[in-house]
Amino acid sequence: MGSKIYSLFEYVYIAMAIFSIYLVIEHWGEEGGRSYLFIFFAVLAIFMFFFKRRFRKNIEDQNKNK
Q1: Distance CA 11, CA 45 (A)
Q2: From 51's CA, which of 4, 13, 24, 57 has a CA 20 to 30 Å away?
Q3: d(Cα 44, Cα 6) in Å, to the nearest integer?
Q4: pLDDT value at position 15?
């Protein structure tokens, strides 16, 4: 059960990245640097997706070896 929840949260990070990229496109021409903030959030969300995925797979491998 726990693995399914962690897997769900991984894809929430991907959804956040897609939403951030959408906001970058919407705010690109405006002043104030808001689009750069959303680029940062998109990169961070993608990083967190891969980090959480690797962490979950390591835990699953450790549980299989027990």
Answers
A1: 10
A2: 24
A3: 18
A4: 96
Four-point Cα dihedral 34, 47, 10, 14, nearest 10: 40
- Dist. CA 43–CA 54, nearest whole Å: 17
CB neighbours of residue 35 within 10 Å: 17
Q: How far apart are CA 19 and CA 4, in angstroms?
A: 23
CB 55 within 8 A of CB 9: no
d(CA 58, CA 63): 9
